[in-house]
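check this:
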Amino acid sequence: MLEHLNPTIYEQLKQSLEVGKWPDGERLTERQKEIVMQALIGWGEIHLPAEQRIGYIDKGKKEKSRNGGTSSDVDSLANIISRS
């Protein structure tokens, strides 16, 4: 079924899920929301690059600390506290 969805239908489903209503104004049931979300995720896995998929988190590159190592959350927190 996911192979037959086109980008227009994908966008319509996505918008319906975002607003919680079908284009005719009828509310999506909880079960419909689950099915639409599964369809959107599945379609994205097949047709979209990772950075455009639902749920994608850009982890980026770790910034370098002054001592040449990678900066950790603990180091960042310590720097913020020491500036206060």
Residues 30-47 form the longest helix (18 residues).
